[in-house]
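TA notes. Do not distribute before section.
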Amino acid sequence: MQVLGETGRAAARPQCIRPLPADIRKRLSEAVAAAFGISPAELERRTRGRIDIARARQTAIYLARVVLRLTFREAGRLYGRDRSTAAHACRVVEDLRDDPGFDRLLDILEHRLSSMSGAWPARARQ
């Protein structure tokens, strides 16, 4: 059953995006930037930038999704991207995990960042 708004169109679903604790994005960005040899500010640029910066940003979004258990919308929002870009980033990083060196780097970052997941409110899973 579809809910109709006042205009007779389908009513928009409410946005349920949790507020982000201030230090989580900073800590995530610092860890990923250090691993990729770039500055944290480069991760937050609106433009795609060089491939190494784009790859680092994709990795940060992937880690936000996997370690912090954010939705695609929330993970993308950390870096000014939409949910479809975040989903693409996660697919790219999953494919890159076939490289043993990259997989080891992600294992190290996941371990380092896993302590942050306790600072993020748990979400109810259906």
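Switch to the second chain here.
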Amino acid sequence: MSYGGRSWQERQRRARKVNMMNKVTWFTLFAIVAVVVLGSGGLYLTTKHTETCTVASKERTTHVSDGTSTQQKLVYTNDCGTFTVDDAWYQGKFNSADTYGMLKDGKTYTLTVMGWRNGFFSWFPNILSAQEVG
């Protein structure tokens, strides 16, 4: 018996081929996304560096969304831009509150930072440690 000029076996074979192509397409897309995500995470880890900066001011903000609150500890400097002070599990750093508390306005510090500024996502470099200069 013929269905639209093709046999039932031909239609089944074609359907299996299209299904396989869809699986390959989805797998390829997943692989590309995984490489981009993991690659950018690896790239982030290579941004660790030090800067000598004078603290202008600090600010702690709280955002509440769907009953969940998140805090952001921001440090504004006169000469290096804005930083955040967050825990960094991938660096074994869990003392962000202490680091934030020891930074004083008007003092100069050698900061070990990681990350980059991204205005679209409101990302700031993260201060991993700070040593007062002088």
